[in-house]
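User: I'm writing a tutorial on reading structure tokens. Could you give me a worked example: one chain, its sequence, then its tokens, then a sentence or two explaining what the tokens reveal?
Assistant: Sure. Here is the example chain.
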Amino acid sequence: MYIRYLDEDVVIVVTTNAGRAGNVREVQAEIIDLVFKDKQE
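And here are its predicted structure tokens:
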């Protein structure tokens, strides 16, 4: 997964070798929550 937030100057890359067993979208969502935690308040 590769996501760019141009306005925030942030790039998030999530990689895995777990194949389809790994839930990359869930991990991605958690990382996004952590990165933008202060902006949500």
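What the tokens reveal: Strands lie at 2-5, 10-13. DSSP finds two helices and two strands in the chain.
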